[in-house]
Structures are given as structure tokens and as C-alpha cells.
Amino acid sequence: MATWSAPGKVFLFGEHGVVYGKPGIAMAIRPRVFVTVRRSRVAHHAKSPYIESCFDEMGVRGSVYVNSQLPSSSGLGSSAAVTVATLAAINDEFGKKNSLEEIADMAFAIEKKVQKGRASPTDTSVSTFGGIVLITGTSRRRLAPHNFQMVIGNSMVSHNTSKMVEKVADLKAKSPGICNPVLDAIGALTMTAMHHMTDPNSLGRLMNMNHALLEVLGVGHPAISRLVLASRAAGAYGAKITGAGGGGCMVALCPKHLKSRVAGAIEACDARAIITTLDTDGVRKEKDV
Ligand code: PMV
Questions:
Q1: pLDDT digit string (tens) for 41-62?
Q2: Measuring from atom 3 of ligand 1, which residue has the nearest CA?
């Protein structure tokens, strides 16, 4: 029996742009997914296409138990965390010798297949390696850690990543003259943010701009806008959608002493707040349960 866990993630900058090769910055966060895999002769019958694909990819059979602290379909990368932790647990339980790089690549291939071709390697890279990661196309670079103080607001409106990615693809096809410069601007914001990683005031302003650009792309949602505005009014440096949008979560960068106030403002909007910070650990082995 082998138990491994992998972290969730938030996008600080660049979601949707990353699907078109623009740079994005994402960060691993504390809620984790725990996966236990056990050898067994009986084929497992997990309903998740992600878990099913992990066993197919590794060419083995076994039973699997998932314990997730991450809400699903909310933009916090739960499907990537499940995929990465399952692959790592299979790797361990069956004595396979895949490296972390190979696990990250396999997890990305699985996400891409399940999501019908439209996915960036962001979630799977962050879940595998932890920390803060700069993604450009298919390349990834781990950035220096920063102790960002974040509050996540879960609107509880479930979103569908593929649908949102398709929505942007439609806009890009119908109005390339509008959509392409917006995607370029999202990439430019990411690159600007790289020079301000130690300046939360500037990062917050850039996050606010990123949020506005995501709304231009049509992936906003009234429930998310409410949380973004409430967080800013409660003293956040900046706040934006995180993930595909159309519901799901937003993230606010906050002064440490205002985290509870921002969380309270989010909860007052009938949403769930998660106070969190960077998780520098990626996928890791846990004590068996
Ligand atoms: O909502 P999530 O966590 O699945 O994030 C989606 C982010 C996109 O950039 C829209 C798609 C992707 O694969 O990067």
C-alpha cells in the first residue's frame, strides 16, 4: 500500500493565456489531495477518467482510495492533484522507476486527453513540483519562493474548465482582433509581475488588471465579481479570478494582518473562504493510513 499527496494551485497570473503559449505564474497551495493505491488482482472500478487513465498509462491494476481537501470543479487544480498523486502512488506501490519529471509529463498527457486536447501543463507541473512555477508553452521554471498571504474565495458556483476554454477559443475565432491583443496583454502582465515578486502593492495592481482582462474574455461571473470587489474593499492588495472562471474561485493577495478581514468579507457574500499560503512541497509520500 502506498499513500501520496499532491497540492492544489492558484493562478497568480496568466490563465487562459497559457493555453495559447503565453506565460503564466501559478503557485502550489496548502489544501492537498491524498491518494492510497494498493496492489490487487481485481481491476479497480474508479469512476474518475483521470484515475482510470493513470492505471492504463502505468499498465497495472489496483485499488485506489482518494481523500481530497480540495473542492472539485472550482479552479484549484483538484483533477491535476488527483492525477499526480495517483501516478506517484502507483509508481511507488508497483516499484516503477519514473522520475518526477516523467510523472509530471504523464499527468499532463492524461489531463490533455481527458480534457479533449485543451490543457496547459500548469496544474500538473505545480502539483508535482510545488512552489511557484512560471509556465511558458510546455516549458516550466520553478521561481524563488515568496511567502504570499492569500485568501481564496470559493463562489460555490461549479464551473467547467473545458467549456470556458472553448468559450475563449470561440471568441478568438470570431474576434481575433480583440481577443489576441487581450491574450498578449495577459502574457505581458505575467512578465511584468516577474519583476515585482517582492512588491505586493504592484502585484495586487497587476492582479486587478488581469481580472479585468479575463472579464473581457467573457470568463467572469457575477458571484466572482462580488467576491473580488468585497476582498479589495476589505483591504486586499489585489484580487482576481483564479482558474478557468465562469464560477469557481477567486484569489486575493492580502497584507498578513488583514487576511481574516478579507476572509470575513468573502464569507459575508455566502461564499467559502480558504486562508492559505505557498506550499513549497510538491507530490510527496505520506505515512500509510
Ligand atoms: O480552472 P482550472 O484550475 O482547471 O484552470 C484552468 C486554467 C486554464 O488556463 C483556463 C486552462 C489550462 O489548462 O491552463
A1: 776 656 789 999 999 999 999 9
A2: 75
pTM, full prediction: 0.92
- What cell does 210 get? 488581469
DSSP state of 278: B
DSSP symbols for 222-259 = HHHHHHHHHHHHTT-SEEEEESS-SSSEEEEE--GGGH
Distance from chain centroid for Cα 269 = 23
Q: Residues 140-148: what's their mean pLDDT?
A: 93
Q: CA 111 to CA 123: how far, in whole Å? A: 9
Residue 24 CB neighbours (<10 A): 25
Domains of the chain: 2-145 (3.30.230.10), 150-276 (3.30.70.890)
Active-site residue 123, yes or no? yes
The answer to whether 28 and 126 have CB atoms below 8 angstroms apart is: yes
The answer to whether the CB of 213 falls within 8 A of the CB of 184 is: no
Taking 3-state DSSP, the helix, strand and coil percentages for the chain, each rounded to the nearest 5, stand at 45, 25, 30
* 231 has a pLDDT exceeding 70: yes
C-alpha–C-alpha distance, residues 111 and 33, integer Å: 16
Ligand 1 close to Cβ of residue 77 (< 6 A)? yes
Residues 206, 204: Cα–Cα separation, whole Å: 5
User: What's the 66 CA to ligand 1 centre distance in angstroms?
Assistant: 22
On whether the CB atoms of residues 57 and 63 are closer than 8 A, the answer is no
For range 150-154, the mean pLDDT: 97
CB of 254 closer than 8 Å to CB of 266: no
